[in-house]
Amino acid sequence: MVGLVNMQKKIIANTGSKIPHLDKIKDIETLKSFGSYAEVKFWVEKKVGVPLKINGWDQLLKRINGLSFSVNENIEKLIFLLDENEHLKELGSLPEAKEKVSALLGFQIKACSWELLERSLKSIVVAFRNRDMIDKSAIFEKNKIRNFIHSSRLEGIQMSDTPALKMADVLDKYRVKQ
After folding, report:
1. Are 87 and 166 spatial neighbours (Cβ–Cβ below 8 Å)?
2. In the prediction, which pLDDT does 9 show?
3. C-alpha to C-alpha distance for 147 and 107, rounded to whole angstroms
4. Which residues does the chain have with pLDDT short of 50?
5. The whole model's pTM is what?
6. Residue 25 CA: distances (Å) to CA of 44, 46, 65, 106, 160
7. Cα–Cα distance, 11 to 127 (Å, whole number)
8. Which pLDDT does position 89 carry in this prediction?
9. Where are the domains of the chain?
10. How far is residue 65's CA from residue 54's CA, in Å, rounded to a whole number?
11. How many Cα atoms are found within 13 Å in the side-chain-facing hemisphere of 85?
């Protein structure tokens, strides 16, 4: 995790960080406010660390939102893969690992070595992860709530994705009275 934070600082320092947080961009007007298409695409590619191979504002926004969603939905797996214990190599051979990582992100990763694959993956994670989900305990809490909502649905209890009730309140409501 420390390596990921250091990598984030290096990337931001090297890009001049014209575009602050890619995970916060929600519309084309926001992208256009940063400059011309070519300029914005260049800054995004530099921040991400891989060429995006897209044409137009719509495709750029779709790619940004798609990568942001993929990274934040799979942040635990990505952090695990980027751990110092070389979990990335446990995915199999380099082509197999690239295929699995690409499937996880929904974006084709090209790398001719393990180091380039790891560097590309770190750059993408740093560029797109939600800054609110830096702490592992926050990630755990998010997943705990999501799992609680899904397990409640299996029990016939419908809850929204952002429950206003606390888990204890729901449990008390449906607990069998003895």
Report:
1. no
2. 47
3. 26
4. 1, 4-5, 7-17
5. 0.60
6. 11, 16, 8, 18, 24
7. 8
8. 82
9. 2-131, 136-174
10. 14
11. 6
In the numeric block, the tokens 């890009």 are attached to 15
Cβ within 8 Å of residue 35, ≥6 positions away: 18, 43
Residue with tokens 């008390």, as numbered in its chain: 172
Residue corresponding to tokens 């250091």: 6
Q: How many Å is the maximal CA-CA distance in the chain?
A: 67
C-alpha radius of gyration, the chain, whole number: 19
Q: Which residues are CB-neighbours of 15 under 8 A, at least 6 positions away?
A: 43, 46, 47
Between CA 73 and CA 93 the distance in angstroms is 25
Place of tokens 């084309």: 28
* Cα–Cα distance for residue pair 44/30, rounded to 1 Å: 13
